């Protein structure tokens, strides 16, 4: 079974430029998460989708970040414009919505390492 | 609000020695607790999880963790370290309000030397 796929793996951009990250979850997983992991820290949730619906985007900086999950499968996270402080690893995860419980295992992709110069 | 504190950002052990990675949590409701491992340039992989059943949880690769409510702890242990255990380990807590929002600690980097 293929895992969570993310692309690109690495991205270097100048500040004020736009950038987009793509995620394809495990087949059949209807819940998708985007996390940001700053250097030396644990991941922090940005947004969570159940199918096409963003059910928790309270941590997403909406002035510059946007996300979409059309058709409830793959997802794109965009930053426009990027700032120096956005340098981080952006992780995508997915889980199967079983009992809608807090124990549904999240499977993580390898992440996209963003460097903003 | 829930939070996780991992004591020790770096831990170094000899191959064959006991591994002990510490995690303390704060939660106003009974928590669910997780340990994840992250190898270089890879995503996080679930090692084990506590879901209010047995307090001693066994995971993959010989790891286990014990939930101690009185100490608000969920420390990760392995009796004998292998070189392949070198990685970063994250403890996480989830609330029980019906969805799996993970709050991660800052991580502990484990080094294993010969």
In short:
Chain A is built from no helices and 11 strands. Chain A is mainly β and 117 residues long. Chain A is globular.
List the defining traits of the structure above.
heterodimer, A: 117 residues, mainly beta, 7-stranded mixed beta sheet, 4-stranded antiparallel beta sheet, 11 strands, 0% helix, globular, B: 114 residues, 6-stranded mixed beta sheet, 5-stranded antiparallel beta sheet, 55% strand
Characterization of this structure:
The complex is a heterodimer of chains A (117) and B (114). Chain A has 117 residues and is an all-beta fold. Chain A is built from no helices and eleven strands. Chain A starts with a strand and ends with a strand. The model of chain A has no long low-confidence stretch (mean pLDDT 91). With 114 residues, chain B is mainly β. At the A-B interface, strand 5, strand 9 and strand 10 of A face strand 5 and strand 9 of B.
């Amino acid at each position: 079974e293929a895992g969570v796929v993310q692309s690109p793996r690495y991205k270097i951009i100048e500040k004020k430029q736009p950038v987009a990250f793509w995620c394809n979850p495990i087949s059949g997983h209807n819940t998708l998460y985007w996390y940001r992991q700053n250097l030396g820290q644990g991941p922090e949730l940005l947004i969570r989708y159940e199918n096409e619906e963003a059910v928790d985007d309270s941590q997403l900086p909406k002035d510059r970040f946007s996300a979409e999950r059309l058709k409830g499968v793959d997802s794109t996270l965009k930053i426009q414009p990027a700032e120096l402080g956005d340098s981080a690893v952006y992780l995508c995860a997915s889980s199967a919505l079983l009992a809608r419980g807090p124990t549904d295992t999240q499977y993580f992709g390898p992440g996209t390492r963003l460097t903003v110069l | 609000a829930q939070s996780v504190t991992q004591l020790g950002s770096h831990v170094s052990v000899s191959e064959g020695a006991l591994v002990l990675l510490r995690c303390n949590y704060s939660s106003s409701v009974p928590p669910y607790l997780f340990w994840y491992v992250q190898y270089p340039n890879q995503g996080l992989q679930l090692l084990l999880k506590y879901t209010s059943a047995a307090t001693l949880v066994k995971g993959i690769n010989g790891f286990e963790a014990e939930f101690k409510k009185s100490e608000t702890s969920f420390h990760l242990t392995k009796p004998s370290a292998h070189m392949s255990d070198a990685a970063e380990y994250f403890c996480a807590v989830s609330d029980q309000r019906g969805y799996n929002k993970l709050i991660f600690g800052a991580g502990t980097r484990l080094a294993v030397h010969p």
